[in-house]
Batch of 2 targets.
Target 1
Amino acid sequence: MTTKLMGQKVQRVEDQRLLRGLGRYVDDVAVEQDVLHCAVLRSPHAHARIVDIDVEAVLDVEGVHAVFTWEDLASCTPQMAEPLPLLIPHPALTHGRTQYALAKDEVNYVGEAIVFVVADDRYVAEDAVGRIRVDYELLPPVVGIDAARAARTLVHEDVPGNVGARLEQHVGDAPAAIARAPHRLELDLTVERSACMPLEGRGTVARWDPDLNRLQVWTSTQSSTGVRAAVAVKMGLDLGQVDVITPDVGGGFGVKINHPWPEELLVPMAAKALGRTVKFTEDRREHFISAAHERGQVQHIEVGFDDDGRLLGLDVEFWHDHGAYTPYGLIVPIITSTQLLGPYKPQNYRVVFESIYTNTVMVTPYRGAGRPQGCYAMERTMDAIAAYLGKDRTEVRAANFIQPDEFPFDQGLIFQDGRELEYDSGDYPAMLEKIKALVGWDEFPAFQAEMAALGRRVGIGLACYVEGTGVGPYEGAHVHVETSGKVKVATGLTTQGQGHATVFAQLVADELGVKFEDVEVVTGDTRRMPYAVGTFASRAAVMSGSAIHLAAKRAKEKALKIAAEALEADEKDLQIVDGVVSVKGSPGTSIDLGTVSVLSNPLRYAFDEASKAATQFSVGDPGKPPVPEDDEPGLEGKDFYSPERATFASGMHAVIVETDPETAEITILKYAVVHDCGHLINPMIVEGQIHGGVAQGVGGALYERMAYDESGQLLNASFMDFLMPYVTEVPDGIDIDHLETPSPLNPLGIKGAGEAGVIPSAAVFAAAIEDAEGIVITAMPISPSELYALRLENS
Amino acid sequence: MKPAPFDYRRPATLAEAVAALAGEPNAKVLAGGQSLVPLLSMRLAAPAMLVDINGIPGLDAIEVVTDDGVGGVRVGALARHAAVLASPEVRRVQPLVSLALANVAHATIRNRGTTVGSIVHADAAAEMPVVLSLLAGSLDVEGPGGRRTIPASELYLGPLESSVGHDEIAVSAYFPALAPGAGVAFEEIARRHGDYALVGAAALVDGDSVRVGYLSVSDVPTVVDLSGVADDDLGEAALAQLDPAADIHASAAYRAQLVRVLTGRVVRSARAFAEEGT
């Protein structure tokens, strides 16, 4: 019997290809062809009215093929000249605004697209952009949450107070409970912006085929079906005329779930208009100033609690900076406001947020998607309560945990998917014991005293989170056994390096009973699976993994039925091992799955040995139709998975840091993670996700920020000044332990793991630095320069 | 991020290179390209011509000089940082050059970037201009009028501005040898490994003479004489002659603190070097 691959550290099938530079990304598409390239004139001002655009100097430049401004968009379709879609509307988003593919009358951030140039190559396109003259009437920019709230000037003149949305949710009566509580605290916290920063930026290639009357688009996205629908609608094409193919993607982390980007429409439009293959490859500066950022929030928290630190009421108000536009609706602040609760039950909770406009790059989900800010708010509150009561920080947390016997636990709120925030499973007390043991929590005070005697400062921090993963609505899968016995699997969501081709093949190998190396997985190609949602919200394993499992099961059922007939055996007595169907206990009586595939498809014509065996003269009972009623030719299985609600993964991180008493440099001495994503499909891949998440978390907590000046210029729009950590800045080793509380919501008992590693970083580093320094930390990220300033203030 | 159009020349001799520069006032010399090429790609610089000197033989020499009374090392214009860093001769004759080079960017950049190019680029955040200044070295340049030697004290005019003429090519840099019994040290603090320093300091202690050079503190490489200053007062004495500025990575007050801390550290370390000989 073959060993089950579920739970095994199976080596990634992607690595040889990706690590040897053999990956095929959007920019690698159509390289041998006569492709046209694009450049975009982007606003140099954060807020301005466009008075005039003069493209005269460009029109006769050699090598320039087309120049598009907003006025040219309507010549494609009227809807191309309309604002871009607001992807996820919400009743509370009373003043949602999206940009045009090319700015119409006004620009609202430095980087907003104004003119699109198509030329022989990118050099010529950039030369042309440099010759275009735009007259601007400057308007006062709104930069930062304080300026937006003050609303002395407005980003959009028809959005009063710069408030796009205000949403309140509550359970019980938090203000009253706080008023009655024996102890009360207030906290004011801030988190600054960062960004996904995938190494591959945005990119799109499009080709119009006049013979097939069909558009093909390659784009670096997290939702090829979403881009397909958007392109079809905007270009006035039938969905069936548009294929979207997502090849290898060099990182997404959320920014590529927003769609369509202006260029994802402009490139297909130009390709069809010019009858040429057109390519846009974003450069790094463009990614900084015209993709998306996240994280910026200001939070005010009031909390009431008893002598044990048990929450009696929690009242949270926060302001979420969503930048100039709201294409992705309120997803990020809704997640902050709901996932803030983590593993705790506050009894009475009220949360209200305002999602506000600023003249900066727009905000859409970045790995964690609002959870890091929520975790930060809650965990800073837990630390503040512990400090106030003089209690151990882990005791205060334990006093507030939802207990293992309380699942499913309904938090009484509405989550980002519009469903109840109901946790399916977890064991937070057991997890706390694991993280304490892993980091050496109880031994730490002795170590801290020992180091203090040497003049060294060390501190420890801990943070807990719960993450709603695997949100719907659905994903599907198609499993096809070819006559060679090879298995082709297609699922529609996209892949940006997670190892889908490995884990999905593990699931198919296990369920269908074939060799792992005989399974090939295709993702993100609308020709192979036109119904799909996308890769975000830590959902790929849960959603497509479950769908693939179910589809493989269907293929197996069909294989057994055909094999039973061929072997004249009972289906119940059959097994499939390594691609061979055999009668249990009678190994001689067997048939290859490839042969079963041959039998499944009666042919009229023969063209090779396999098809000779499948002609209508050799297959089946002559007394019955070649394809039985209620059946289809081919050995295939197709199924969809659509869960009732999200499944809730959880985790706890702890870190020990050292701060230099002279230079305020912050060094990580130990980083520990306990993680629960239900059953593990591939522990190595889960650990890789944690490593990557922690690395990004270190960046967000200690290095990265978007340094806007008061005029709305991004001062650090390069990898020289935006301090994404190198491998030298992330911990040498991360201690990881797993807990597996299976989800009851899907057939595999799994939960998502993609985003987890990044969620608690701001919280856990703030706690550890606070512990090392004895200074309350309320603003993250924190640099040595800022820590030094805090020391001066507190001395 | 594609450069504006430019003419490209790749002369085979120094004379041809000088002639090419003389014929185009808006030309730039390309050696390692680690600073110039990003500036071109971001269109922050748009020279009409690049004169690529990588085809000129003999410019990559690293030589020990013994016949000038003091002794020292001469580093040719095409000597890569990595080659200079790997040279045991350089380490023996003037260890400060090696100590500082270990802090220059990352290995891949050191493999292409040249030490002389960094000196000519005149970035006050770079290591090698400060080292040349502290050691009172010099730069040899070749122009239409022949060769001349610019002392380090006359090399730096302002931010990214040196006294090398637009029609001149830097041929080599000269670092005087470490005197017997003298000591050196280098330390910098950067946000990330290999980044430009928030503050860096190099010390040269020779008998009673204590001099410290700073990077990322002023807009030109700056050397301060701290001879005779009591150990506890070194940082404040240095700050009395410096005016650190703020940027997005560090406040002025934090830079001042780093000047205090690093001044003490490098002077102590250079003294220990002088005593122990390494």
Target 2
Amino acid sequence: MAYLDHAATTPMLAEAVEAYAAAAREVGNASSLHAPGRRARRKVEESRERIAAVLGARPSEVIFTGSGTEADNLAVKGIFWARRDTGRRRVVASAVEHHAVLDSVHWLAAHEGAEVTWLPVDGLGRVPVDAMREVLDEHGDEIAVATVMWANNEVGTLQHVSSFAGLAAGAGIPFHTDAVQAVGQVPVDFAASGVAALTVSGHKLGGPAGVGALLLGRDIACTPLLHGGGQERDVRSGTLDAPGIVAFAVAVEAAVKSQQEYAARVAALRDELVARVRAAAPDAIYNGDPDDRLPGNAHFSFPGCEGDALLLLLDAQDIACSTGSACSAGVAQPSHVLLAMGADDDRARSSLRFTLGHTSTLDDVEALAAALPGAVERARRAGRR
Amino acid sequence: MSGGVDSAVAAARAVEAGHDVTGVHLALARNPQTYRSGARGCCTLEDSRDARRAADVIGIPFYVWDMADRFHEDVVDDFVAEYAAGRTPNPCLRCNEKIKFAAVLDRAVALGFDAVVTGHHARLGPDGLLRRSVDLGKDQSYVLAVLRRDQLDRSIFPLGDSTKAQVRAEAAERGLAVADKPDSHDICFIADGDTRKFLADRLGETPGDIVDAQTGAVLGTHQGAYAYTVGQRRGLALQTPAPDGRPRYVLSITPVTNTVTVGPAAALDVSDVAGDRPVWTGGPEPAGPIECEVQLRAHGDAVPATVTLANGRLHAELHRPARGIAAGQAVVAYRPDPAGDVVLGSATISS
């Protein structure tokens, strides 16, 4: 099988699996006062320190969550709620956010009285820095929270996160970034980037699914989503998942430490994939920034084809990829990212995302190159009906 | 795979027959919440999950195909337009004709598949003849009779030799959780089952007269002729009883004058039926009149008849009168056969 969907989830690192299994054999609630509790607590805190160290954060800034989605929800809703009382009701978000942010913002607008300013993107999927500047000039004193992802999950385009964070900080506005796709792929440093809050997820970088973290500056007020035992600075209650957190930390550390070498290798493989796809389907449109993008991401539109049909045909040949966009009841929707980039509905529906990762090889690329021409031909025949 | 028991077992049997099978669930609702909920429909999120789970158990790939726009145009809009024209459409039949064995089949063939397998209760053997299911109570050959030869040639109905009870038992044996899921009835795109309200929402209220067939007297008013079906007795709300005290029935609907005509049951008797757009798949088209049986509505009884195919129309002369025959329904000709009555052809009833 050629697994070309690492952005959906990537295999767990062997050392993360072992760390998980070892920790899962131990009993102990990290909130308990007795010896087994202390042992669990120690593992969690060591993990927190490891993650903080490699991501440029202080340990106290690491809030463990159950997923990247939860961390995004916590940042967007939590910071909005905490600042709404001061009369700030505006949320600023890019038009190409992951649904975890996008739908949180929509929900705040629909149910919590939020005003929303959506930041546009250019044809490569990048938010112009000026767009943020203009919003801050116009609405600076109304804004509760601003959020722009570090790297786009569909087309892989990297954003000017530090510039946004700097502008927002200058206006006294907390800036959040969803870095789920970025950590381990490109250099990510919480303190150096100047962001107030940053989301990271376990299963995108070789850790387990079901664990993530929000890096949250000490001075950033954030109202909890979950109330209970008061864990995680009272911001995120719930018994800590010690084995998950331990494995998460192992994976974050490994991914960040090997990032440079990983990125060079995977980007070269990705460039090969792009060349092969272009050879197989000369009219394919390479979406996103051709250079300044995630090393493992290749995203194409195949004119005249439905992404859905291509996916089915490639799946039948044991090639796993994604349309990259969200499903609604199993039906692929035209990508909001492509639409925001100015693509029409047909192009947005005709796209396919190939993402490489730490287990990818040239064999995967060659399998795709072999299967693609036939798949494109058939998908084109099936057409957009 | 609708999410029901029939298509799940059909898929499992197709796999066992050696086919390379991919499960497809059709998303037919533009907004899934607006279609029937629970086990009664075939288009809800819950049904989609049931279908996916069945595909997992069978061990086949599974995809949802978005056919909502096509379904809306070819089935729902057609349904409303037919009622507006005073006819009584059968949307399941139209869905087979335009969606399952047309849009879906075409897409599948383009993608490299050879045939569409469904869980319809009908037989289609190597002789290419479409026959009634062994389970006459569940037989669906009537709603498949609209299929052309080229459509039948790419169709597989694995359930025709089994009764519904056998299909359910087999589903249970195979570990398919849908084994005891209730049958779907009613029309999948009418969420609350209230067809009259569904039509009124789309066609508006158009009050008109209810008149007596014999005297021409106005007996009452209606809020929209589309709400009535030939043969209907209930819901007429007539103030004046018939002189003989017998119940009155809807005899005809005339959209041009927005009139519903009522009269005694005996006036519902029909001996001649004409149909448009005939298809003939049970052999070569007959050059002259043939003796066979015709079925004039879903779940109706078959009536002996002489059928003639001429000038792009089908004509059936019934050997005993049938009642409550509505334009827009299908007339399906069957040749009685101990090995399962054979579908000869069908047409859409025009008069």
